[in-house]
Amino acid sequence: MKVLAASLFITPFLTSFVLLGKVPASLVVTPELPTSTFHWSSAGKNPTLTEKEKYKGGIYAGYSDAELTPLLLQEAMDQWNNVRGSFLKFELKTETTEIGLNKSDNTNNIIVEKVPSASTAAYASPEKGDSSANITDCDVVINDTKVTVKSFLETVTHELGHCVGLGHPHTNYGAIMSYSRGGSSYRLSADDKAGVIYLYPDPNYVSEPPTELIGCGVIHGAKQFESAGLWLYAALCLPVFFGLYRRKSR
Description:
alpha/beta; Collagenase (Catalytic Domain); 8 strands; disordered N terminus
């Protein structure tokens, strides 16, 4: 009874990552060939970056948008590159000629252009090839508008997460992949890390304790709790939890 009650109380608070579809889809990489290249053109448009003086102590305050943009793209990629337990590595390649959006050339491009909706900061277009499990092309389009360095980093990190194969979680609003973030950080949450480890598990860490994943993971086939339902569920379980606690203390 105690175990059951504890499970009822804890389960709603276990958040999880969300995949793009019912079938897990991932980039065409392996532990032996772990690198997925994204192309950026120095001849194309750059976002208008503001608040440069607030990024890394202002060391890039004097940089132009063209100079700083590829550094920020690499910083966003490194959020996914440096997850312990995942073999995936993103690589940025700067081109000198203009590149555009092409969903069928099996090339990952990052471009800046005006998007149809003014409220859209960016979008990613992960395309599946012959196999529904493979993402063979993922272009990231960033809106040609004014944006703070911090928001730009968060946006690019989020869109790269779609290229990783992750969707929008509906319970963890602290995850970089959440569709409703408060703009607090461009760092990955434990759920984001759990997702990339699930899709790209590094065989070198299989036997190690999952230090990045304590209290996190995914329950396949489980329905996500909406926030209102979660709090209602917790409120209903609280009397049971405290009743058991008082009984034990006696």
